[in-house]
Amino acid sequence: MGKLLTLRSIVIANLQSPREKIWGLLLSINAHGITIRGIDINSYQDWIRAVANQTEGIGLTTMFIPMIRVEKVILDETVGGYKSLSEQFTDRIGRDVQEFFEVSEEDIDRVDL
Fold first, then answer.
1. Rg of the chain on CA atoms, in Å
2. Helices (H), 15-113
3. Of 1, 30, 78, 82, which one has the fewest beta carbons inside 10 Å?
């Protein structure tokens, strides 16, 4: 059995209207929508480069996405020879990506609608 998708899981959300993918930390999920602290997947490499170089640049944001836009939410996990984005981050930066989300347990309790 694989890992379960829970709050504080790192996920990739596939959205529609407009089509986009968001990678980040799942803060809440309910009938109204999902709240994620993360970044558009197209900006992920720029963000990781800024973290590696310790420069100002693109940052993570906290966003609420209405359920009508959510097509699917996928757990960011390594599958076969394909490393998850989180694992790629750890390999490149040498630290766990969870340290960079800057979200406390109290923050997660507050965002749930």
1. 14
2. 44-53, 85-93, 105-111
3. 1
The domain limits of the chain are: 10-111
CA gap 74, 88 in Å, rounded: 17
Q: CA 36 to CA 65: how far, in whole Å?
A: 8
Sorting pLDDT into bands at 50, 70 and 90, what band is 70?
A: very high
CA atoms within 13 A on the CB side of 36: 25
Quickly state the pLDDT bin for 73 (edges 50, 70, 90): very high
pTM of the predicted protein model = 0.86
Whether residue 74 is predicted with pLDDT greater than 50 in this model: the reply is yes
Phi, then psi, of 67 in degrees rounded to 5: -60, -25
Residue 84 burial class via C-beta count within 10 angstroms: exposed 0-12, middle 13-18, buried 19 and up: middle
